[in-house]
Predict the structure.
Amino acid sequence: QVRLVESGGGLVQAGGSLRLSCAASGSIFSIAAMEWYRQAPGKRRELVATITSGGSTNYADSAKGRFTISIDNAKNTGYLQMNSLKPEDTAVYYCNALLRQSVASYSYWGQGTQVTVSS
């Protein structure tokens, strides 16, 4: 069974850093692409960052210069390094990954991890 498991969330003071991980397990060959989303209470889910296996990245304006997305295909894991965190970054963060499998590539979601930034 293919799964995405997120970790790394928590409570941090404003200005601090966190690194979120999104680990893929099961019968997969590699991560073709990954996205990180977040959803704050009462708000729509928003796209934060994307990356392809070729290394192309894109960031929401709110994340540029502070967040870095990466993939380590040797570990089947993606990361979101978040620096200079602000209270407005508080949200549940979700990863979505396109995983290469034997027949085709399929999209999966992680379960979400809570990030809380105190002022």
Remarks:
- The CA atoms of residues 3 and 25 lie 5 Å apart.
